[in-house]
Amino acid sequence: MKRVLALDHGSARCGVAVSDPTGTLATPVGIVERPDTKRGLERVVALVREHDAAVVVVGLPLSLAGGDSGQTGEARAFAARLSQRLEVPVELYDERFTTTLAQRAPGAAAEDARAAAVLLAGWLEAHA
């Protein structure tokens, strides 16, 4: 298995996490400022290539009831733009509670990056 890169998308910041090659561990990498800008999107693309990711997972901010939220459309549009720039699959994955769990998780990494790691850990578990 190759690495999986996860993105906790937000308009101001995008948290980034990556798996180990075995798909067992999710590690926060950092954040990308303003990912919806040309420069931000280029940075995300560069991180995908730098980590040799085979799949990119973008967090889908669903409501508590499981429907679309105010930010769901933004995440879908970001994933679509990213997909056009990459040769690897871009998947959307439910990110409910990732920020709350990241706030409770210790670590020196930025909260957005920890949220991406929580998102990735859930995706890896679902695909084990």
A few lines on this structure:
This protein has 128 residues and is an alpha/beta fold. The chain is built from four helices and five strands.
Give structural notes.
With 128 residues, the protein is α/β, with parallel strands linked by helices. It has one domain (3-126): YqgF/RNase H-like domain (Nucleotidyltransferase, domain 5, 2-Layer Sandwich). The protein is 39% helix and 27% strand. The protein has a 5-stranded mixed sheet with strand order 3-2-1-4-5, with helices on both faces. Helix 2 links the parallel strand 4 (53-60) and strand 5 (90-94). It is globular. The mean pLDDT is 90.
* Largest β-sheet summary: 5 strands, mixed
**The CATH superfamily title:** YqgF/RNase H-like domain
Strand content: 25-35%
The CATH architecture category equals 2-Layer Sandwich
| E-strand count | 5
Classified by CATH, the class is: Alpha Beta
Over all CA atoms, what is the radius of gyration? 13 Å
Enumerate how many helices there are, as a single number. 4
End-to-end CA span: 11 Å
Strand order of the largest sheet: 3-2-1-4-5
Instruction: Quote the average pLDDT.
Output: 90
Give the low-confidence spans. Answer: none
Structural class: alpha/beta
Topology order in helix (H) and strand (E) letters: EEEHEHEHH
Q: Work out the helicity level.
A: 25-40%
**Outline, from the CA principal axes?**
globular
Number of structurally distinct domains: 1
